[in-house]
Each structure stands twice: as structure tokens, then as C-alpha cells.
Write a structure and sequence with these properties.
- The chain has 318 residues and is of the alpha/beta class.
- The protein is built from eleven helices and ten strands.
- Strand 3 and strand 4 form a beta hairpin.
- Helix 4 packs across helix 5 and helix 5 runs parallel beside helix 6.
- The structure holds flavin-adenine dinucleotide.
Length: 318
């Protein structure tokens, strides 16, 4: 079933969903099941699986020089989605990125997803690789996620890259995209970012999942701005609890999000990591309850492999 069909079926009830990361190369599918098994009692109708492109690393070779090589640390998104659907009978949402993909690669990936009856995709650009400095698309690939959305929407109309194909089989993808309540870090301003978000909706995207945020006010203002901009698709808040004190600085650095002063002040009183986790859980529970009361279609939790924390939050909210 499509993600948007789940929202429609819920008739205003707030759903929950989870995001998982593929295991590091050499890891087992069991590590994903260990994260998800204890969460399935909350009946998530869909589960997202992230995509991780190759990264550059510098390796010392036998003659002492460093060599730049590229490795993919977390391959396996499509297989993981199929395994999740098979084990739990829920929908899986693979993340599909522009980085590292030619248009042909993208089309082939989508054909495989379609064959596997995976009808949901989160279409995103991906970040710049370390040492690249800026996002560099693959030759023959997409520079922005709006172009990826257009390609998926074209396949939904039976249009493939091979112009010799007439009346090609229509895929039936529900397309999610990323949204940024605190603006995407590369964007010159919030309004410009929102205009590009609107362009993705006009290109065929069906719903938005947001970057994590710690201040609900940002999210509510984002909803308001989207409405004013004419963006009327479901908007799903993405949530990640603070679990370690160092995250007060690392999360803003990595995800360009602001930590509310009240949370920072509470964290400053804390002396040990256990209390930091407790504070993060309490904060996320309060955020979740307020968002649920406001009638969001779904609460989407970035699990980052931390089942116990996410379980405690969801238990308190539902
Ligand atoms: P885009 O929509 O392409 O936007 C990127 C920037 O370009 C923005 O500043 C935007 O304002 C601007 N822009 C957009 N269109 C245009 C245009 N036509 N002309 C000029 N400027 C434009 N990354 C991964 O690698 N794997 C994942 O699995 C993953 N999952 C994610 C899930 C969620 C819910 C979110 C919020 C992010 C995720 N990311 C993931 C991170 C994401 O790839 C980065 O945030 C990336 O930097 C931007 O992706 P995007 O799709 O928003 O990009």
C-alpha cells in the first residue's frame, strides 16, 4: 500500500513509522530485525530504509603513500526492504538518492523495486561526499531531487529513458521527499528552500518527511509557511531523541538544526550520560505528544539502531 493510502486509511489518527540504517558491510540482516522486532507491536504501517552512497577514504599503501579509495560502508537498501516486507508484512520505503546514480542506474533501481512490489520511495539528493566540498552529481545523473522526482513520475506514466518504448508499463510509486523546518543548509534563505520544495510537489511528490528538529515551534511555523506557499501534501515530522551530551553540539553540526535554549539549559545541569538519555527521552515524549495532539499524520522516528530509547518514547505516547 502507498504511504499516502495509509494516511488516508488512518482517518486523522496519527500513525507511527521508523527509519533504519542498513548494517555496516559484513553485518547481518539480524541486526535490523533486532532493532525492529521490539518495535513492531506499535504497528508501524511502513518502515524507511536509508541509502548510503560510497565514501572516500585514504588508505596507507605498502610504500607508505596514502591512496584515495572509495568504499560503500552500508550497502543493501533494496534487499533490506524486501526482507522487512517479507518478515513483517508492512510496507518498506527505500530511500533513493541522486548521488552516485546515472539516470539509467535510477531507472534500473526503480524497475527492480517495482518487480518487488515496493511502491514507495523517498526521493532525495544525498549529501556531498567528504573531500568533495559540494554535491557533485554522477555524469548523466541528477543534480537535484526535483529531477529524480520527475523521473519517477514519468515512469508512473509509463515513460522510460528508452524513447523506443511506447506505452511502457506504468509504475505506481508513491513519492516522498525531504523537508527542512529550519531550512536546508545550502539554501540562501527559508523561502527559496520552500519554493524548491513546492517544485518537487508540482513534479509529482506525494508527501514530505522532515529533517529532525527539537523545537516544535519550528515545525508548526514550517507547516504554516507550507500552507501559505500552497504546499498541501501530508507533512510528517521526523524525530530523533537526544541520547548523549555531545549530541548537543554534534547534531547541529551534522544536521544543521537548532537546539532550543530550554533543552540546552537542562542539559547543562546534567553530570552523567544516563541522565542525558533520560532528558532526551522526556523531551522527545513531550514533542511527540504535542505533535500528536496537533493531528500530524504520522510520527516518524529515526531509530539509529537505538531500540530501547525509541520503544520507551513510543510506549509513553501511544
Ligand atoms: P534537494 O531537494 O535537491 O535540495 C538541495 C538544495 O538545493 C537545497 O538547498 C534546495 O533548496 C536547493 N535546490 C533544490 N532544487 C533546486 C533547483 N532546481 N535549483 C537550485 N537549487 C535547488 N541522505 C542520504 O544520503 N541518504 C538517505 O537515506 C537520506 N535520508 C534522508 C531522509 C530525510 C527525511 C531527510 C530530511 C534527509 C535525508 N538525507 C539522506 C539527507 C539529504 O540527502 C540531504 O539533506 C541533502 O543535502 C539534500 O537532499 P534533498 O533531497 O533535500 O535535496
Amino acid at each position: 500500500m502507498k504511504v499516502t493510502e495509509h494516511f488516508a486509511k488512518a482517518k486523522g489518527e496519527t500513525l507511527i513509522s521508523f527509519e533504519v540504517l542498513p548494517p555496516l558491510k559484513g553485518g547481518k540482516m539480524k541486526s535490523i530485525f533486532d532493532v525492529l522486532d521490539p518495535l513492531m507491536e506499535f504497528k508501524p504501517p511502513f518502515i524507511d530504509v536509508t541509502y548510503h552512497r560510497e565514501e572516500y577514504i585514504y588508505q596507507k599503501n605498502p610504500n607508505g603513500y596514502y591512496e584515495k579509495t572509495s568504499i560503500r560502508k552500508r550497502p543493501g537498501t533494496v534487499g533490506i526492504c524486501a526482507a522487512i516486507m517479507h518478515r513483517y508484512g508492512v510496507d518498506a520505503v527505500p530511500h533513493l538518492i541522486c548521488g552516485g546514480f546515472t539516470r539509467e542506474d535510477t531507472e534500473n533501481a526503480l524497475i527492480d523495486l517495482n518487480f518487488l512490489n515496493i511502491n514507495n520511495v523517498l526521493a532525495i539528493r544525498g549529501d556531498a561526499r567528504q573531500f568533495d566540498g559540494r554535491f557533485i552529481p554522477e555524469e548523466g545523473g541528477h543534480s537535484y531531487s526535483v529531477d529524480l522526482v520527475k523521473q519517477i513520475a514519468a515512469m508512473n506514466c509509463g515513460q522510460y529513458l528508452d524513447s523506443n518504448i511506447e506505452n511502457g508499463a506504468q509504475t505506481n510509486f508513491c513519492i516522498g521527499i525531504a523537508g527542512y523546518p529550519e531550512k536546508h543548509f545550502e539554501s540562501p534563505n527559508f523561502k527559496t528552500d520552500l519554493r524548491y520544495t513546492k517544485a518537487k510537489i508540482e513534479a509529482g511528490a506525494d508527501y514530505i518527511v522532515t529533517q529532525m528538529f527539537f523545537d516544535n515551534k519550528c515545525f508548526f511555523e514550517y507547516l504554516q509557511s507550507c500552507t501559505e506557499m500552497g504546499i498541501n501534501v501530508p507533512i510528517v515530522p521526523g524525530l530523533k531523541p537526544l541520547t548523549k551530551l555531545y549530541q548537543l553540539k554534534s547534531l547541529p553540526r551534522m544536521f544543521y538544526v537548532n537546539m532550543p535554549d530550554e533543552l540546552v539549559r537542562e542539559a547543562e545541569k546534567i553530570k552523567n550520560e544516563k541522565d542525558a538519555t533520560e532528558l532526551g527521552i522526556e523531551w522527545c515524549i513531550a514533542q511527540s505528544k504535542e505533535l500528536k495532539a496537533a493531528g500530524v499524520p504520522c510520527l516518524h522516528y529515526y531509530t539509529m539502531g537505538d531500540t530501547d530509547t525509541i520503544r520507551r518514547i513510543v510506549e509513553a505516547v501511544y
